[in-house]
Design brief:
Length: about 575
């Protein structure tokens, strides 16, 4: 039988054992894998996780709504190639973050949504726990992978699996479910440290086969009117030098999709952006670099592309299932963009440049369209229209090529894509594949946090409404974000009427709203611009100051068209009911 002295010794030894818990293991697992920032909204059961993460040196950016925090995490993933982390509470908070997770997955951006959840034994018996919901089952169809961790010793492997799933192959969103009881589980610190996993080579290079490269080279060498389309996947890849070598080495005209703008400057002599319609219609071989033939490219068919079978496609994508998704791909190149272009550049060394008449056709059309647009952009009218206001902002970005442009809206987005030139990669962030509104403030905040660069967020008044309360977040963290709201009093335009005369029209907002006063309420700087000259001066002043600012840009309420440039996707009734 142990003596009293021996018992005291045993107790003292036990007390000297260092302990850790689920909270600290989650933080340690993230930090071990180079993740230093969390975006989220605090609450039950993850409040202390945010506090402890901040205390352990991580940057924790707290938002006013989980969807906006999720959008920030998604863009962080695009900018850094590391999973952006969004942390939410259970049930309603999880559901709010789920929209952003699906958005990240659709756009192929790495993101991990970490949500606290109710205990399994209560949820599975549906006994009515606080915010009870089977979150894992709900998340699975909307993301690339979903995992649940039940034991503290599995946190390290759970975080590692989530990171690898998010960034490997085609990147996407991952859900990580952490029930409340997990956080308070305790284990020896030494064993906890041993349980952590550092992910090695999370996104290994995927090199295309020699036969695939030769096939693509043969197709390209047979082209008379070749075209390169750069998608946001090319921007995400950060294979900027190989992309430049490919474009300039081949001499082929290139067309950037909106978030690929700036991979090569929009004023590059080979840019076909201002001759998009001609380039798509008349090309005979199209090289897709990280671009998908989805709705943004009319699925690769239809009158925009000319007669069926009039062109061949070479597609570079890391996902084999993407090939032949809409039209036949003559030369599929499966692999990561850097590796594929590296092989193509070697194989195409010394290959002849495109025919001079094809290059001249593109350049002539480009110059004609630029000249035609110049008059619209140069007006100093009051009230402003979209073209004159965007003309002022075009000059701002030209003078500040390192600034990041965030853009969303209907007309505000569609017209800015073609008007505002970009000069450096990953400097234009917008609504992506889904065309979803409300990503603006989350994207702007993440861009400022992840890069430290000044951000210009150009928002339609409708799009801003989805995430506008985050101006308080911008002010709270004192971020160098200048927001410009194109205020035309409504969705598309602000002049529609309710036929009954009872209510405002469904697309109309409060006329002459003062969004600038909203910014001032939180300590930011508000401006009110009525002409392009005023707008340019105010944006310059705000961006020079490097502080939170919002410019309310007054746009003619009659300006704007239904759904911007995609009005064909908005069906309209042709039935007239008799009274």
């Amino acid at each position: 039988m142990a003596t009293t002295a021996e018992k005291v010794k045993e107790t003292t030894a036990a007390e000297e054992v260092d302990l850790t818990d689920g909270f600290h293991l989650v933080i340690d697992a993230l930090k071990l894998n180079g993740i230093e920032t969390i975006y989220g909204v605090p609450g039950i059961p993850i409040t202390d996780l945010g506090r402890l993460a901040q205390g352990n040196g991580m940057r924790v950016i707290s938002f006013r709504h989980e969807q906006n925090a999720g959008n920030a995490a998604a863009i962080a993933g695009f900018l850094t190639k590391k999973p952006g982390i969004c942390l939410t509470v259970s049930a309603p908070g999880f559901l709010n973050g789920l929209t952003a997770l699906a958005h990240a997955t659709t756009n192929c951006w790495p993101m991990i949504l970490i949500s606290g959840s109710s205990e399994r034994e209560v949820v599975d018996l549906m006994q009515g726990d606080y915010e009870e919901m089977d979150q894992l089952a709900i998340a699975k169809p909307l993301c690339k992978a979903a995992y649940r961790v039940l034991h503290a010793e599995d946190i390290g492997i759970g975080v590692a699996r989530a990171i690898r799933a998010a960034v490997s192959g085609r990147p996407g969103g991952v859900y990580l479910d952490l029930p409340a009881k997990l956080f308070s589980q305790v284990m020896e610190a030494a064993k906890g440290e041993q349980s952590l996993v550092k992910v090695i080579d999370a996104a290994p290079a995927q090199i295309p086969g020699p036969d695939a490269v030769k096939r693509a080279v043969d197709v390209l060498k047979g082209a008379k009117k070749p075209l390169i389309i750069l998608g946001k996947g090319a921007a995400y890849a950060q294979a900027d030098e190989e992309i430049r070598k490919f474009v300039e080495g081949t001499g082929i005209p290139f067309l950037p999709m909106s978030m690929a703008k700036g991979l090569l400057p929009d004023n590059h002599p080979q840019s076909a952006g201002a001759a998009r319609s001609t380039a798509l219609l008349e090309s005979d071989v199209v090289v897709l670099v990280g671009a998908r033939l989805n709705w943004l490219l009319s699925h690769g068919k239809g009158k925009q592309w000319g007669p069926r079978g009039s062109k061949k496609f070479i597609q570079i994508d890391i996902e084999p299932k993407e090939m032949d998704s809409n039209v036949e791909i003559a030369a599929p190149l499966v692999g990561d963009i850097g590796s594929v272009l590296g092989e193509l550049n070697k194989a195409l060394s010394g290959a002849p440049k495109p025919a001079a008449d094809w290059v001249k056709t593109i350049n002539d059309k480009k110059e004609a369209n630029i000249s035609k647009m110049a008059a619209k952009l140069g007006k100093n009218s009051s009230p402003m229209d979209f073209h004159s206001a965007l003309g002022a902002l075009k000059q701002v970005i030209k003078e500040r090529p390192d600034a990041i442009l965030v853009n969303e809206g209907a007309n505000t987005l569609d017209l800015a894509r073609g008007i505002i030139d970009m000069y450096k990669p990953r400097k234009r962030l917008d609504v992506g594949t889904w065309g979803v509104m409300g990503v603006g403030m989350g994207s702007a905040i993440a861009a400022a946090v992840e890069t430290g660069l000044p951000v210009l967020a150009v928002e339609g008044d409708s799009a801003f409404g989805f995430s506008g309360m985050e101006v308080e977040t911008v002010c709270r963290y004192n971020l160098p974000i200048t927001i410009v709201i194109f205020n035309n009093n409504g969705i598309y335009r602000g002049v529609d009427k309710d036929p009954t005369g009872r209510d405002p029209a469904t697309t109309v907002f409060v006329p002459d709203a003062r969004y600038d006063k909203m910014m001032e309420a939180f300590g930011g700087k508000g401006y009110y611009a009525t002409t392009p000259d005023e707008l340019k001066r105010m944006v310059d002043e705000a961006m020079d100051a490097g502080k939170p600012a919002l410019i309310n840009a007054v746009i003619d309420p009659a300006a704007g068209s239904e759904s911007g440039n995609i009005g064909n996707l908005n069906p309209q009734s042709v039935v007239t009911k008799k009274k």
